Structure formats: C-alpha cells, structure tokens
Amino acid sequence: MKKLLLLFYFLSLNLMANELPELGSYTDNIFSSADEDKISKQILYQVNKNPLVVKDSEIDDYLSHLGRRLMNGTSLANKNTKFFILNDSTINAFATLGGVIGVHTGLFLAANTESELASVLGHEIAHLTQKHLPRIIAKQKRDSYKTTLALAFALLVSRSNPDLAAASSTVANASAVQSTLDFTRKHEQEADREGIKILDRAGFDVRASIDFFKTMQKGNQFSQGAAPAFLRTHPVTTDRISDIQDRLSEYPYKQRLDSDNFYYVKGKIRAFLEQKNTIIKILETNIKNKSYINESGERFALAYAYLRNNMINKARNELQIIKKKKAPNPMLLNLEAIILIQEGKKNEATKLYKKGLTMFPSHRAFVYGLAEHYIRSSKTTIAIDLLNEYLLIYPEDPNLYELMAKAQAGEGKVLLQHENLAESFYYRYNIKEAITLLDLAVRAKDGNFYEKSRVESRLKELKREWALFSKGL
Q1: Domain span at residue 398?
Q2: Rounded CA separation 12/359 (Å)
Q3: How crowded is residue 295: how many other Cβ atoms within 10 Å of its Cβ?
Q4: Quick one: 238 and 382 in the same domain?
Q5: Residue 448: beta bridge partners?
Q6: Which of 199, 225, 248 is the last residue of a domain?
Q7: What is the pTM for the complete model shown?
Q8: From 134's CA, which of 20, 210, 221, 459 has a CA 20 to 30 Å away?
C-alpha cells in the first residue's frame, strides 16, 4: 500500500505540469506567492523524505547548475526554483506548482547529449514560465480547486497505467478528461516553442529537441500503450513535430561539445542505481567493444562500480586512464579522494580535498568530505570553522547543518547540536521536527545568553510559520 501511495503521489505531480487550458486574465490571482510557497514546501517535504529520491550532492549540483543556466533570461531567473532526481527508470520529467521540477534517472540515461537533456528541462521550465498549471485552475471557480486536481489526477492515471484507469473513473467522467487532453495538446506546443527559445539562449543545440524524440523512438519500438512515460505525459503528434521542425529552421546550426560532467553524472547514476552484480560486466563489455558514446564517462561509471563492489585497485586503474586523457575535474578529484579513503590513505585524501576546494571552491562534495574527516579525527574545532565558512555561502544547505550538529556534539555543545540539527530538518522542509529540536535546544543546560535568546527567537519564528503552513492546504 505504501508503494502504491508513493506511485500515486508522483504520478499526480507528473500530470499537473501538463494538463492546461488557456490563460485567463486573473491567472496570477489564483495562487498568491504565499500559496506557492506552501505548495512548494509541501512537495519538497515529500521529496526529501522519499527513499526513491537520489541524494547525491554532485548529481544535484549538476542538475541545479544546468537548470539555472536555462532559466537565465526567463521570468524564473531570480526565483528559487528547485530540482530533484527521482530513481525511476522511465524516461520522464515534470514541473509542478511552487517552482519544483523533477527528473527521472531514466531521462538522464536516455539522453545521448547534454543538449537533449537540456531540451527536456527547457520544456519543463517553459511550463512554469507560461504558468500552465494555474491556467487549468483559472478556468475553474476557486471553490472547485480540489475537483480540478482530481480531474488532472484521473487523466494521469489513465495515461500512465491502463490497469489503474478503472480506479480513476470514480474521480472524473470521460468528457472532462477529454477536455483536459485538448488543453494539453495546445500547451505542449507552447512549451515546445518557449523551450526552444530557452535552449538557444542558454547556448545549447536547439535541434536536440527533435533528436531526443528520435532517440526514444529508435530505442523503443513500442505500441501506443507501451510508449516511454515522457511521450505519454507529453504526447507527440505529427502536428507538434512539424511545428517544432518549422521553428528550428529559424535557428542556425550550432555545434556544441558536451561537458565532461554530463557524462560523469550519467556514469555515477548507472554505477549506483543499476544491479550491483551485473553492472561491472556490462561496463567492461562496453569498453572492450568500444560500444559507448563517451569513453571517459563509461570508465568513470566502471570505477564507481568497482568501488561499490570493493574492488579498489581496479577502480584506481580506471581513474588513472581517465586522468591521462582529461583535464582536472572536480568529480574526478572527488572520486580519487574516495579511493584514497578506501585505501586507508586518509591524510592524502584530506590534502586532495583541500586542493579541490582551492581549485573548485563551490564543489560542496569536498566540503562534506573534509568536514567528515575532521569530525572522525576529533578535529571538531577545525570542522566547525570550515562549516561556518561555507554556511555563509550556502545558508540553506541541510547537509552543512547536519555536519555542524555532529561537530558540535563532538565538542559537547548540546544547545548548538540541537539548534543545527533543527536547521537541517527545516531546510529539508520538515518544520514540525525542526520545532521539536529547537524545543530541546531551549531546554539545554548549556549555551550563553546570546545563544539561548537566538534559539528562543527562532523557535517562535518557526511556530508562527508552522501555524500558517498547516492552515488551509
């Protein structure tokens, strides 16, 4: 039952980005910024506690960086749009209310080029910039909001899983679902047009939007019912493809080299999310037969697959081959540091993390690794100084607060431990648990006057926020 509810949750998010009518003049009044914030936090709370969501700082940072690049120059450029990756082999991506975009691991693995991946993200960003979800709600009276979402859910179920379609019949009738489908086709075309503009402005190959459809169709000889999820939730019609091709003729050819990180992220996903006992053989065979798109990406995946199976020497050999061919890269440095730790060379790993931060100061994996090393080595004061420095740069990073809580516990600072742990929960959108931990911090017997006052003030602030957050949604 739990898995089924989880499926329903993500399926409902998936649809709500796409079943959309014409824009009404009052669309912007349907949801206030406070409403959007509540919805965003509710979605992100579910995301953060869900075991199917991939939690890897390098993969997260790559996706967020790519998303920000695409959003530059759009109405979302200065908005706090959030991205997350769902461990799902289906080829799909979706945008939701509150500026949240989800990407399936299957999409990463299906994309042959960075421009193909960017074309899908650009399409989802366009759903947000064009306010597509508010459009469907704008067509309804505000007091029928729940009915509108029920219709959207019914449509998604009928598209995503025919076996569940019957269950949706009690939610909405066929004519209402068909009406929503008509809106979808119109707004998918609009998202295509805007997505192409977004892709071009960010410097990617605009023809990747058609290439991606061809990639899916070439690799999936399917019937209508067995199409990849992206084609089911984003229906591709002849008119739609023709419209895209007509618009692409307006853009000059642009050759673009993919970033190394695109292939390394794909490699990391494959190494950790495919079967542990079979992935090594698959990758070794691909390298032997040269059946890959990018050799370094394939070897990067194999190095992590070896590490996953505790084959440390083989992992280092693959890394050395990559390093001879490629320029220094933060993901390569992080892989080397992990190998050094597995080899028992912790001091060398520490030096490499420090070097990495000098060369790539925004690569958070180095901060996490270095702080963890200091904490394990009982160098908690050094860890606290490092974490304080990076909390100034990343004040909403829950991992930094969690590490700070560990460091403060090592120092015997109970109030500060609970305070930082509370912030880690808050920035994972679990306000209720954050309040519980701040209550413990307030009752702690240590802490000076300033620290106690700060914690009490923060507790009052979160209680006010929780009262607003838990009301009306």
Answers
A1: 378-473
A2: 42
A3: 16
A4: no
A5: none
A6: 248
A7: 0.84
A8: 210
